[in-house]
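A reminder before we start the practical. When you read a complex entry, don't treat the lines as separate problems. The point of joint prediction is that each chain is placed relative to the others, so the output describes one connected object in space. Small molecules and nucleic acid strands, if listed, are placed in the same frame. In the example below there are two entries. Take a minute to note the order of the lines before looking further.
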Amino acid sequence: MTTAVLTKRDERIGQRSFLKQALGRPEVGSLVGALALFIFFALVADAFLEPASLATVLYGASTIGIMAVGVSLLMIGGEFDLSTGVAVISSALSASLFSWYFATNVWVGVVLALVVSLGIGFINGWIFIKTKLPSFIVTLAMFLMLTGLNLALTRLIGGSVASPSISTLDGFDSAKLIFASSVNVAGVNVRIVVFIWLAMVAVATWILVRTKVGNWIFAVGGDANAARAVGVPVNATKIGLFMGVGFCGWVLGMHNLFAFDRVQSGEGIGNEFLYIIAAVIGGCLLTGGYGSAIGGAIGAFIFGMANKGIVYAQWNPDWFKFFLGLMLLLATIINIVVKRRAESSK
Amino acid sequence: MAKKFSWRRASIALIMGSALALSGCSSEGGREPAAEGTGGGGQVADTERMTIALITHAAPGDTFWDIVRKGAETAAKKDNVELLYTSDPEGGRQAQLIAQAVDQGVDGIAVTLAKPDALKSALKEAEQAGIPVVSLNAGEDSYEELGAFTHFGQNEEVAGEAAGEKLKELGKSHPVCVIQEQGHVGLEARCAGVKEIIPETEILYVQGTDMTQVQSTVTAKLQTGGDIDSIIGLGAPFTMTILQSVEDVGSDATVASFDLNSELAQEIVDGNVAFTVDQQPFVQGYMAIDSLWLNNMGGFTVGGGEPVLTGPAVVDQEQAEEVLQYAEEGLR
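Here is the predicted structure of the whole assembly.
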């Protein structure tokens, strides 16, 4: 970009300016929305800018954001997963109930839960590929089945609808250190899941933009048949994406388990929509083929800010849900407006 | 190709998992082997076997209802009753469950009236079919009108006032009342009761289906500063999470609670939670079944046309030791 601009070039290979290029990224709209929301709460809520408050906002965002990583990738690959909310709890329950029932080291349960979570993802993807039903239906069925299994198995094995506490088992402390501890950053306790979340976003972004698999994901989401025609392993990619969501569910499930020692089997219902909302706010298209992992992270951050900012602003709690909805709507509108501007000026 | 690969991986992981399981036994904690069959021993009534449907608005996974159900099961075992337990948090679908019980021709219905208007017509059918009905837990204001002959429960507003009085006694003037389900009549009434006694009471809504969100929202509330000097959870699992938030922030706010489980009882014994307002759910479940059995046996009506209150019973450090033992058995 130094000397080449002086000579007149064919416009097809012309470089767009850095700004225009940046504006064309899928997450840019949500970034503007996030900034607007951040400035807004910084103005109306005194406590919002305190370092400890920001750590809380990030924590609130991370528990949505971890799942949004997998869900964003899956959505770019053109599919939905409605079983994510309860799959998180299934993972936590399988770790908890297994280690409790057999009185094993909790790490055995943690490994088992990983197998279960990946297995749920695999089954979702496999049924989807075999039956060619919409992923919406397949994962809705999985959602219902897991909801029932969570409840029935927990009661059958543990005797109560909440899993028994595993805090006295061997390995609990080391597992808690990894999945649910706090890290002191400049005097502020930041939850470790925040860092896990950021690392996962980085890895997912790297996969998407730097690897062959990333290209496959965009290809199967854009047009699966065309992708198959040029030799992309469509089935493996899609199953892999579902298993990726399973992996994210395992990470969050382990956090849930080790943060609270026990898990209530009815939790998680409804959260699947929050993950999808985060991905959509972050610029992933509902139709697939377009989006980014960073966008999903920003979407989760917007949700975290709106959710906690309302509390910091001390608004009348009766209006909480309304404001939450309004915030999300405004953030999404800003997102669309910015993106349209950017696209029309290409 | 890809499929085979995954299968192999899965089976390797499974084998590894079970190998680990064999070698990785924990030195303490976990399930206590054997020791089955506690409580409810003794003689079974020699009355003819009857069928009673217990239909609640319990959300799946709420530990509170485990205790109600345990009470009902204990009474059923003793009274030679076959207990059919169903639940649905949504009013319309709970009404359908009542209609199904009527179709099945049960001998009695015990029902929670959290959404009385939705259940009106279904209970009318039960009345026409001559099936006696009692209500429990929720429905103190509406049980008579809906044809139940008595009600077992706690007046939630009175319970809230009891909590408010206790907090006032402890010198608290600015409590936060954490509601885990916005719009839930009973929970709102509890906080209203607290507010009746301490007008400075603030309400905080959290998303009860996600504990991480409960924790971060409560943390956010405590970080707003102000003069919050106490915080009340409306269910034992939520109070446990609130307690973590309080510790995280390093706030010196007093934690109080409603309802009970063994961990909460332990925290009260240890002095980390000041008190809880218990509504004795075991009694609600037990009495509902037992009163229907009495009614069937001799036409008795418990309560003399008035609701029977099972709470509020305030449990603080003094009583917690004793209660803890029962809580561990799943009775409190």
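Discuss with your neighbour: Residues 233 and 254 of chain A are 31 Å apart (CA to CA). What might explain this?
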